[in-house]
Every structure is written in structure tokens, then in C-alpha cells.
Design brief:
This protein is an alpha+beta fold. The chain contains 12 helices and 24 strands. The radius of gyration is 40 Å and the shape is elongated.
């Protein structure tokens, strides 16, 4: 009887020990290792898809927490460039993962598992490399055979019978997504930032000026412009930059030789501006706009009437009107010289007339006028009062001599007035009575013209035209 009692006690003790051992092998609530593997797989899959919303739902973070906000901003923020987003997407597509099942540990309502992620070693093909286009960077990622591993430990907490990741705030997750916002060295497309370009020349100097709609100063050192004279390279160098304008200058000690001069501004393989100037003789002054060519550059051609009839031309002194405009813009110097403008009257066959300024030669006339007055303008602009101070200022600005600075500023001023228009344009009807022409227009007070014996006629229009020209205008038949 005693032996049976001992056997029974031993059996009970063994059963109790076995039961305890079994209890120690099972987590609280009866969770299994497979539950943690399944939770780890779901979270790893969300990480690979870079799905911030799904990632947050698989954690115990409050949806309004700073950690979730940081994650959403990191993966879905608007502060990355399109190029950076494209590269991040390409890298994310290379990510695979494997759960280390032997690493799974469970303790009551907590657990953890280690997951090893494998992705392209993007640093090996992106770091320190300059790409012309983002497509070049994407191709480098696609062709890269090198891989790198990132090991993450997922910590879980059991909440409402669901295993949720509890360590999303760990810095290891930031490191995992370090490919977002990668600091790419991709050459920007500056052609999209070009606003306009123009070419100008004097008898010793020509320039291509390219105006941008945004600041591009950080890229100027990588720009190069080339000047060709009759298809032979005359100069190739780096331009200079001021107030969102890139200046490509070419000058010679004497007059420019007759021929065709082409100037091209390049940024890597991007052409930012191009101009052609044709020098027909050593006294040419001109320029052109865009990539078009122009003899004596500021433009050739003449006023084109909108009606059929006889055309007459007079030369008007437009100095007062032009100076008033300059003074309104803040120029306070005493201007010298005369600025003339051609005025055209067309006497239509149908009794209508057209009265207008011919702006085709105006730019060249403005150049001549501004060249006479550029020195006092420069003194006012730079706040100096002597030629010695002008020379010193030019040197301090890195322009070498005042002559160089003077020419540069003269060209810049003329560029401002390239499309200047006095706004002179009248239409109406006319009748004749003997040697008098009567002009009627709803735009201005009616005026008269007196015919001369040489085929001309004189019009005393006063300041009606807006020229403040009190001298009568003598109109001669156009050639």
C-alpha cells in the first residue's frame, strides 16, 4: 500500500511538473510563435510598400502622435523634389525581406522578432556621382548588382488580442528609410528657367545676354559660352552673372571685322541662349533677339502701314518726351544730345490717314543718345563724382577698367529700352482744299497740313503727338 502511495505521488508530481513546463512554453493568452511571425510579416510588407497609413495601423501609436506625423511626412511629404521621389520609388522596388524565425521571443503580452531587409546598395551608384538627368540615376539603380542589408527588430505588444508593433519611434526605422530625400547630384534643367535672350553689338563689342526667371548664380561656374567668327572659334570662356542675367561678352581692341558672329551659352549639354550678329562694315551698331539673325542687330525693316496710300516721313525731336520718361524712372542727371524718331503719315487712297512713330530705328537712336549720357548716369548710379572714382569702382567690381564697366552698363540700359515705344499712333480721315490738308481724328484735336512745292507738307501738331515737339514737322515722300 505504501509503495502504491509513493507511485501515485510520483505520478502526480510528474504530471504537475509536466504541466508547469508546458505552461512555461506557452505565452499569456495562448499565443503561438506563428502569431508573431504573421504579425511581423504584415508589418514588414507595409514597410516595403512605404505605406505610412498601413504601417501606422499595425502599431500601437495613436494616429495623431508625433511619431505617426513624422512618418507620414517622411514618406508622403511635399518637400522632396520629383527627382528624389522617383529615386526613392526605384530603390523601394528592390527591397525584399526575410523573418528570422529563430529570433522570435514571447513573454506574456510582449514579443519581438528580427527581420532582415535586403535592398540595392544605392550609395555605391549615387554617392558622389553627378547625373545629367534623373533617368541616368534610375538606370544606375536598376543596373546595380550590389546589395546591402538592414536588420530591424520589431517589438510587439498585445492589445485587444492583436499583436501591434510598439517601437515605431526607434531611430532604426528612420535609418531604414534614409533613401527618401536622397541628396542627388542631378544637373537641373535650366532651359526651363530661361526668360529671354538678346544679342547686341557696337563696332568693337558684342554680347549675348540671357535673362532667367529664377536665381541661377550657383550654376554660373558650370556655364560656358563660345563665340564663333565665320564658323571658327574666336573665344570660349565662362560668363558673368548679375541680377538674374548671364552676360556673354566679346570685345576687341579695334573694330570688329566684318563677318558673321555666333554666340552660344551652354550648361553641360543644355543650350541656354544663342544669337547671331552680322557685321557688314566697321561702323555697324546693333543686336538681335532670340536666336534670329539681324543685320546691324537692333533690327532692320521699316514701318508697315495698315492702309494703302502714299507714305510721308518726318524726323521729330523726341528728346523731351524721352527724358521725361527717364526722370519718371528716377534718373536725375542733366541729359545732353538729341533723340530723334521718324514719324510716318500714310494718306490712304480711301480718304483715311495713319499717323505713327516708326520704331524700327529707334533702338539704335537710343543707343547713341545713352552713349552721350552714360558717364553722368554711371556717377549717379554708383554714387561717385569723378572719373578716378569710376575707375576705382570698376576695379573693385572685378570689371578691370571703367571702359569695360561703362560698355556693360550701356548695353544693359539699351536692353531695357529695346522695345521702347512712344505710343504714337493716330487714325482718322483727311480732306484737301487747295494746298491745305485737313486731318480729323477722334483720338486728338483736328490738325492741318500745308503742302509745299517740293512734294512735302508741313504739319504744326504741337504736343498733340505726345512728343512735346513744338516745331512743325515737315513730311517728305518716303523712298
Amino acid at each position: 500500500m505504501k509503495n502504491k502511495t509513493r507511485l501515485l505521488a510520483a505520478a502526480v508530481a510528474g504530471t504537475v511538473a509536466l504541466s508547469c513546463a508546458s505552461c512555461s512554453m506557452l505565452p499569456f493568452g495562448g499565443a503561438k510563435k506563428e502569431d508573431i511571425i504573421e504579425a511581423a510579416d504584415a508589418f514588414a510588407s507595409a514597410l516595403v510598400k512605404c505605406d505610412a497609413g498601413k504601417i501606422a495601423k499595425l502599431t500601437n501609436e495613436d494616429k495623431d502622435s508625433d511619431t505617426v506625423a513624422k512618418l507620414e511626412e517622411h514618406l508622403g511629404g511635399n518637400y522632396y523634389s520629383e527627382d528624389q521621389d522617383a529615386v526613392a520609388e526605384a530603390i523601394a522596388k528592390t527591397i525584399t525581406y526575410e523573418i528570422d524565425e529563430d529570433s522570435v521571443e514571447i513573454s506574456k503580452d510582449e514579443a519581438e522578432a528580427t527581420v532582415v531587409f535586403t535592398m540595392v546598395d544605392y550609395d555605391s551608384v549615387l554617392d558622389g556621382v553627378q547625373f545629367d538627368y534623373v533617368t541616368d540615376a534610375l538606370t544606375a539603380i536598376e543596373n546595380c548588382k550590389d546589395e546591402t542589408e538592414v536588420e530591424l527588430t520589431f517589438e510587439f505588444a498585445l492589445e485587444d488580442d492583436e499583436w501591434l508593433v510598439s517601437n515605431l519611434s526607434d531611430k532604426s526605422f528612420d535609418k531604414f528609410y534614409s533613401f527618401y530625400g536622397y541628396d542627388l547630384d542631378i544637373i537641373p534643367d535650366l532651359t526651363a528657367l530661361v526668360d529671354a535672350w538678346s544679342t547686341f553689338n557696337t563696332d568693337t563689342y558684342l554680347t549675348l545676354e540671357v535673362e532667367f526667371c529664377e536665381d541661377v548664380s550657383e550654376y554660373v561656374d558650370d556655364m560656358t559660352y563660345t563665340v564663333w567668327q565665320d564658323n571658327y572659334i574666336a573665344m570660349e570662356t565662362t560668363p558673368y552673372y548679375e541680377d538674374m542675367v548671364v552676360f556673354c561678352d566679346f570685345s576687341v581692341d579695334g573694330p570688329l571685322e566684318p563677318g558673321t558672329y555666333d554666340i552660344s551659352l551652354m550648361f553641360h549639354d543644355q543650350q541656354l541662349g544663342y544669337g547671331t550678329v552680322v557685321i557688314e562694315d566697321n561702323s555697324s551698331i546693333g543686336g538681335g533677339t532670340g536666336s534670329g539673325t539681324g543685320v546691324n542687330g537692333y533690327g532692320t525693316g521699316s514701318f508697315t502701314p495698315s492702309i494703302d496710300g502714299d507714305m510721308y516721313v518726318a524726323t521729330a525731336d523726341a528728346t523731351n518726351a524721352f527724358v521725361e520718361g527717364l526722370e519718371a524712372e528716377g534718373f536725375g542727371v542733366d541729359f545732353e544730345g538729341t533723340l530723334n524718331v521718324d514719324i510716318v503719315i500714310v494718306l490712304g487712297d480711301n480718304g483715311e490717314f495713319e499717323f505713327a512713330a516708326d520704331n524700327s530705328s529707334l533702338a539704335a537712336n537710343i543707343y547713341d543718345f545713352m552713349e552721350v549720357n552714360i558717364d553722368p548716369i554711371m556717377m549717379e548710379f554708383l554714387g561717385v563724382s569723378s572719373e578716378d572714382e569710376l575707375e576705382a569702382t570698376a576695379e573693385s567690381l572685378g570689371m578691370g577698367t571703367y571702359d569695360t564697366l561703362r560698355q556693360t552698363m550701356l548695353d544693359a540700359l539699351v536692353l531695357e529700352f529695346e522695345d521702347y515705344d512712344f505710343g504714337i499712333y493716330l487714325t482718322g480721315t483727311y480732306t484737301t482744299d487747295g494746298d491745305t490738308i485737313y486731318f480729323e481724328s477722334s483720338d486728338v484735336t483736328n490738325f492741318e497740313g500745308v503742302m509745299g512745292t517740293d512734294g512735302s507738307f508741313t504739319v504744326d501738331i504741337g504736343d498733340t503727338s505726345g512728343l512735346n515737339n513744338n516745331e512743325p514737322l515737315v513730311f517728305y515722300p518716303a523712298d
